[in-house]
Structure to design on (190 residues):
């Protein structure tokens, strides 16, 4: 089972994740795209990454915006290395 | 421009939309699927309906759950006939 990261580990991870923040026990980032289609395409691509990692985001879409929150339910809703890995995969998709 | 519906019109529309409710000035329904993949597939199909109608949901996905809220920004964030039409299209997708 994934272990919760310490505050120091989270701070260190964030240095490699531009635009991400630690908020309410989760890694969070808000994305804005040029259109609803672009936002949906992003979500589908992230969906494949999430499914492959068997680790899934909490996310909200409103038109061209996607707000993402990552935490690990099996670790008491805390941030673990799985969240950091998924955030990195999301950054690659966002390109 | 779409006109806000009256409370009576909203109540009447809800009679044809099982599981939908009127909440915080929006039409709302929470969907639960058998998997994340099924939830994503649902969102993609609804996305095509939304884009075709040029009317888009506010929605949140967590694993196999999708919470949808519909209101019309161009009508002051009130429920209009566009929301009722999109809710009907969503029901068809949910099948």
């Amino acid at each position: 089972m994934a272990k919760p990261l310490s505050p120091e580990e989270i701070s260190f991870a964030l240095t490699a994740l531009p635009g991400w923040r630690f908020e309410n026990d989760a890694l969070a980032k808000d994305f804005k795209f040029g259109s609803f289609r672009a936002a949906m395409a992003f979500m589908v691509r992230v969906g494949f990454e999430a499914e492959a990692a068997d680790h899934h985001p909490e996310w909200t879409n409103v038109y061209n915006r996607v707000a993402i929150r990552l935490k690990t339910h099996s670790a008491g809703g805390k941030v673990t290395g799985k969240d950091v890995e998924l955030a990195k995969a999301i950054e690659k998709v966002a390109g």
Observations:
- The two ends of chain B are 30 Å apart (CA to CA).
- The interface with chain A takes residues 36-37, 40, 43-44, 47, 50-51, 56-63 of chain B (CB under 8 Å).
- Chain B has one domain: 7-94.
